């Protein structure tokens, strides 16, 4: 038998030490070390390695087929994955409890089994009958969809070898354990080793594997960070669990872009795709209210129209507060400083709150001008020009800089009935969009944009 030794492992990053440490030297987290038994290798692990062994081949002899991607027929998910599930890929799905991880996994299983693919759903947290109740609610239950309640990884690999499924769902990785490792399920050793074995099985057999992972209080997937390095794709569900809308975002994708997002609506029948997210985000926008501005941001190749709201009120404390939801706080502080210095707004004694409606997070610099106009509108209690789309990046000198792909942003706004668009001068000169139903107005400075948007200067 292999010699077993005791190590102390950090539960956040997987760092191992021969003795207990108060603070992890790798991730700087406190009181995260737990004693675990560690075995360098076992006969069973070597036997499994030999079972899925693969010989080297010449790269020029490798043939790529169109069938190397499996379409799930859930267009929002296929968009995020880069066109479908790649055969032999390992996808890690994370998110808060109750946000829809198990729901989307069961819907994927049902869709693929409808198309004749064999799917194995491994439910480690629910019994087979409990999973059946959820599947019945979602309308799942095809002939080629297999369900099993199992947490022993050695038995799960035997099921994969026997059924040869096209897709395996592991729900969840924190309850799966490898018998040859003495530590408890969910520990760093178990999560790391189980994920490594599942990845090896996927690469050698061509079976695609979806792994569901719990998240910590900080919003990251529980377990060592090496788990995200092992897999091919990492998907996160964003949004409030008490809201109807969910945003699926890829933070890592070896087979596609990480800029694409999928928008879903939670219903009693499961997660439904939102065909027009822009219309959804603007469905409850108030009219003729100060501090409300619409901007078009790019998420991959998709333009999304979102509402930015700002509230400015007199500070009741010794210092002014700045709060941002869905927008970078440091960027907000910079834009407030530009408004004070270049435009002359007295904001040093004002509390400023900025919110991006719909739970979406904005990183596109094209939203700078919209945030500035929302703050100016709320400060002066004057509504922004109605039916206006605001585009532009703000520089430290108060200039309005050009943005990328202005044409597709404007076309999206035109579809939803917007009448005006304030954009940088450079984008108007180089615009590939012909003025039609929407009036294009160019600005070169922040002060000029505020005067136009708040009605001090006629358009």
Characterization of this structure:
With 459 residues, the protein is of the alpha/beta class. It has three domains: 1-40; 41-55 and 67-275, Rossmann fold, CATH 3.40.50; 280-453, Ribosomal Protein S5, domain 2 (2-Layer Sandwich). The chain is 29% helix and 26% strand. It contains 13 helices and 23 strands. Strands 8-7-9-10-6-11-12-13-14 form a nine-stranded mixed beta sheet, sandwiched between helices. A four-stranded mixed beta sheet has the order 15-16-18-17. Strand 9 (167-171), helix 6 (188-205) and strand 10 (208-213) form a beta-alpha-beta unit. The chain is globular and about 75 Å long. It starts with a strand and ends in a 6-residue tail after the last helix.
Question: CATH superfamily assignment of the largest domain?
Answer: P-loop containing nucleotide triphosphate hydrolases
CATH topology group of the largest domain: Rossmann fold
Shape: globular
Number of strands: 23
| Structural class category | alpha/beta
Mean pLDDT: 86
Strand order of the largest sheet: 8-7-9-10-6-11-12-13-14
How helix-rich are the residues, as a percent range?
25-40%
- The overall number of domains is 3
- The tally of helices reads 13
CATH first level of the largest domain: Alpha Beta
* Radius of gyration over all CA atoms, rounded: 26 Å
Strand content: 25-35%
């Amino acid at each position: 038998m292999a010699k077993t030794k005791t190590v102390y492992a950090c539960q956040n990053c997987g760092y191992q030490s021969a003795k207990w440490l108060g603070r992890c030297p790798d991730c700087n987290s406190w009181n995260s070390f737990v004693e675990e038994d560690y075995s360098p290798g076992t006969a069973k692990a070597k036997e499994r390695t030999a079972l899925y062994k693969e010989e080297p081949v010449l790269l020029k002899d490798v043939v790529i087929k169109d069938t190397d991607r499996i379409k799930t027929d859930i267009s929002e998910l296929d968009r995020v994955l880069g066109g479908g599930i790649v055969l032999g890929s390992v996808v890690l799905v994370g998110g808060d409890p109750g946000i829809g991880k198990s729901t989307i996994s069961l819907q994927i299983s049902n869709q693929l089994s409808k198309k004749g693919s064999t799917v194995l759903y491994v439910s480690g947290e629910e019994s087979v009958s409990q999973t059946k109740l959820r599947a019945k609610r979602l309308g799942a239950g095809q002939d080629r969809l297999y369900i099993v309640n199992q947490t022993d990884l050695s038995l799960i690999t035997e099921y994969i070898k026997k059924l040869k499924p096209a897709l395996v769902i592991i729900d969840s990785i924190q309850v799966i354990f490898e018998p040859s490792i003495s530590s408890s399920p969910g520990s760093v050793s178990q999560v790391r080793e189980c994920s490594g074995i599942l990845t090896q099985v996927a690469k050698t057999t061509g079976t695609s594997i979806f792994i569901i992972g719990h998240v910590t209080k900080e919003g990251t997937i529980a377990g060592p960070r090496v788990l995200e390095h092992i897999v091919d794709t990492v998907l996160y569900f964003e949004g409030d669990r008490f809201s109807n809308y969910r945003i699926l975002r890829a933070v890592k994708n070896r087979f596609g872009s990480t800029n694409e997002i999928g928008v879903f609506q939670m219903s009693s029948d499961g997660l439904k795709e939102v065909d027009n997210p822009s219309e959804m985000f603007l469905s409850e926008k108030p009219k003729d209210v100060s501090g409300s501005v619409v901007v078009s941001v790019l998420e991959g190749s998709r333009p999304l129209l979102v509402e930015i709201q700002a509230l400015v009120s007199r500070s009741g404390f010794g210092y002014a507060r700045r709060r941002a939801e869905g927008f970078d706080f440091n960027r907000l502080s910079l834009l407030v400083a530009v408004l004070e210095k270049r435009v002359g707004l007295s904001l040093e004694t004002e509390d400023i709150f900025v919110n991006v409606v719909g739970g979406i997070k904005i990183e596109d610099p094209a939203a700078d001008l919209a945030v500035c106009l929302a703050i100016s509108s709320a400060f002066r209690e004057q509504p922004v020009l109605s039916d206006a789309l605001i585009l532009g990046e703000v520089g430290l000198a108060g200039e309005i800089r050009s943005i990328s792909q202005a044409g597709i942003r404007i076309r999206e706004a035109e579809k939803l009935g917007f009448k005006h668009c304030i954009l940088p001068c450079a984008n108007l000169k180089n615009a590939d969009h012909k003025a039609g139903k929407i009036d294009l107005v160019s600005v070169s400075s922040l002060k000029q944009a505020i005067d136009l948007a708040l009605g001090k200067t006629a358009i």
